[in-house]
Known about the structure:
- The complex is a heterodimer of chains A (about 110) and B (about 120).
- Chain A has about 110 residues and is mainly β.
- Chain A has strands at about 5, 10-15, 20-25, 30-40, 45-50, 55-60, 60-65, 70-75, 85-95, 100-105, 105-110.
- Chain A is globular, with a radius of gyration of 13 Å.
- In chain A, strand 7 and strand 8 (about 70-75) form a beta hairpin.
- Chain A is built from no helices and eleven strands.
- Chain B is mainly β.
- In chain B, the strands form two sheets. In chain B, strands 2, 4, 5, 6, 9, 10 and 11 form a seven-stranded mixed beta sheet that branches. A four-stranded antiparallel beta sheet of chain B has the order 1-3-8-7, with no helix packed on it.
- Chain B starts with a strand and ends with a strand.
- The interface of A and B includes residues 42, 43 and 53 of A.
Amino acid sequence: DQQVKQNSPSLSVQEGRISILNCDYTNSMFDYFLWYKKYPAEGPTFLISISSIKDKNEDGRFTVFLNKSAKHLSLHIVPSQPGDSAVYFCAASVDHNTDKLIFGTGTRLQVFP
Amino acid sequence: SQTIHQWPATLVQPVGSPLSLECTVEGTSNPNLYWYRQAAGRGLQLLFYSVGIGQISSEVPQNLSASRPQDRQFILSSKKLLLSDSGFYLCAWSVFQGDFLSGANVLTFGAGSRLTVL
């Protein structure tokens, strides 16, 4: 049972344009969401997060939007840069005692010149 | 500053051989520690987590085990590897982000260990 879903395995965007990565979840008890970025042969690195009490969080070129009624969140990257090319994982948290995160399957973003 | 070390970086093992992957954390005490696996075409799957020395919780039934002999050391093991154990194994520890009203612990991952079972 995949509680966090990233239905697009890959996305290709031209440099300078907006990249939109989507994530859906099924568990209404999730109350904190995170995005991680992963380069090949490296561990994922934390990118940005959002609490369920908010609907938007912005950090530089990265903005995460949360639609609780639709159980959907998205990551916007504007403007996209070639260095943004990586796999992006959406993750959700429900258990603060153990800090367990449930990850999606990832979306591979390629930004071309 | 906190750092996490994970080794070996790559490993090729025959089916039926044992496994030991090690992870250590520096610059923090009593961290929550985790082992994740990224299998081909799949997301990050939580295998084990530990909230303290000797305290291990398993998330999925499998051919692997974990141990935490010291506060900042986490070991992933197997007595006999299967082909299906191949994957990219990631150790992580967590730090809290946010405030008391809303927040979560953010995982910081190691560089990963690529295991290929032949």
